[in-house]
Amino acid sequence: MGWTIPTTQLAALAAVTFVSVDTIRRLIRNRVERKGCPLPPGPTPLPFLGSVLSVNTEEPFRSYTEWRAKYGDIMYIQLLDMDVVVLNSPSVASDLLEKRSQTYSDRPFIATVNPYGHDSNFAFANYGEHWKLCRRIFHQTFRADAVVSFHPMQLRKARQMILNVMDDPSDYTSHYSTFAAAVTMCSIYDYDPSPRNDQMVSIINNFIEASVPALMPEKAVLLKVFPFLLHIPEWLPGSWMKREARVARELGAKMVEAPYQYIQKRIQSKEDVNPSMVSDHITHMEKLDGSHRSEYEKALKQTSSTAFLGSVETTISLLTTFTLAMVKNPRIWKRAQAEIDTIVGADSLPEFGDRSSLPYADAILRETLRWQPPVPLGAPHTARTSDIYNGLYIPKGATVFGNIWAMSRDETRYPNAEQFLPERFLDSGGMLTDDIPDLVFGFGRRVCPGRHAADASLWIAMVTMLATLDFGHAKDVDGKDIAFEVKYMNGMARHPLAFPCCITPRPHISKASLEQALTK
Ligand code: HEM
């Protein structure tokens, strides 16, 4: 189209001008505030572009992890107009994100968050009163001692998942997805989704599909540089972003409202409801007066929809990674099965009460989290004020990442880090060490508030799979292993795509025995 070339040139010119002006402004400001302290070491930036051409844009954590050898545990990287500080060790992450959490608990501005309906996601919220209220609501339901009340439901869902896998093993990732969605929706809305084509789950997935790609840096930078893209009338060419954002916002509003209305109606019609985050808080909210009540309701709606978004993809990612590790390492699932058979008995299924007696199963869970952390760079924090750390200057507004990937690949803590070795979490007597890889859940005041629920869901799902299933390579017509290459994709969480494998019930496990266990 005729207008494309001049518009593209204009766009490039405007982008360069924007980045140039902003870079010069930052350089002047930094020089004044630095008080002679250097920035942390890092790659030499190109004028205006910074190091954007040297970073692996799909998986930036890989570039940052490679650069650690040269620049150390704290690095500064300029990416276009952004100051990025990457923390490569747990001790530096703890020094800044935990011990100086007053400074580092905010989130950076991402231009596409609000226009695409993510303003209802409190994981993106600025550090402030609204975020604190959301965290408080979340904490009451998902703190360590409260999530125990979800154990019976998690156990039931894990066993149902095995039945689904036995019915249709080739579609295993969709059964993991059903498990993750069911556990989350039951604990938040007392809503039990159907295994396939559930209407409520579709509403949420539609929003994820429409909005998550917009969070990628390419789109966010585009909108930051050209905010007018959201103001072009929809009938004009070039209005694609405005239309895309409008659709995402509409889906976002539906995602927040539909499950909330579902549980609210059930409470109003005095149905029996199980304890869940929303039902518990609706009851509490009724005691509040007008203005507090509407603020509380807004926070409750946002907290509940954020919980779903935070939970499902991370859980699916880890269960698929676990399956991959089992298929590649039969020695490991056989050892876990021997432990389960000895402690629980081959004719019973594991329960939460068995956990402390099954250290090897726990070591497998820890190693799954460490080996392929689903959020390898964590969520970005930002510096609310400029800071000096060990004589290094951190500019106000810098985006700060705890590089979980680098920490999980630290060869001094995890020798042969690329290998899947649960034994690294056991001492010589076969008991669990005190190395818990909780860094995969992030840092400081923004640490994942769903980590206790996630830990329980993952443990019961993995231990029930180990007790009931064997894992192997899929075979071709000649009985040879089908070779495959695993691809990880980035979305809400980094997750492996499904790969061919053969998941079969152990010889003594039958559908009837599982169905019977479910009726107990
Ligand atoms: C399954 C494994 C999970 C992993 C690996 C994981 C990881 C993370 C990470 C790295 C962060 C960012 C922390 C930071 O900013 O430093 C985070 C935040 C968050 N996670 Fe999780 N998560 C998991 C499961 C869950 C579950 C089950 C829920 C809900 C029940 C949840 C809800 C959240 C929320 C609401 C936040 C935002 C917190 C805030 O900004 O204050 N996550 N998670």
Structure description:
By secondary structure, the protein is an alpha+beta fold. It contains 17 helices and ten strands. It has helices at residues 4-34, 60-71, 90-98, 101-104, 129-142, 151-167, 172-189, 199-211, 217-225, 240-268, 277-285, 290-328, 330-343, 359-371, 404-408, 451-468, 511-519, and strands spanning 74-79, 82-87, 381-382, 387-389, 392-394, 399-402, 469-473, 488-489, 495-496, 501-505. A four-stranded mixed sheet has the order 1-2-6-3. Helix 7 runs antiparallel to helix 12 (290-328) and helix 10 crosses helix 12 (290-328). The longest helix is centred in the middle third of the chain and has 39 residues, at 290-328. The relative contact order is 0.14. Residues 1-11 have low confidence and may be disordered.
Task: List strands and helices in order, with pairings.
Layout: H1 4-34, H2 60-71, E1 74-79, E2 82-87, H3 90-98, H4 101-104, H5 129-142, H6 151-167, H7 172-189, H8 199-211, H9 217-225, H10 240-268, H11 277-285, H12 290-328, H13 330-343, H14 359-371, E3 381-382, E4 387-389, E5 392-394, E6 399-402, H15 404-408, H16 451-468, E7 469-473, E8 488-489, E9 495-496, E10 501-505, H17 511-519
Parallel strand pairs: 2-6
Antiparallel strand pairs: 1-2, 3-6, 4-5, 7-10, 8-9
This protein binds protoporphyrin IX containing FE (HEM).
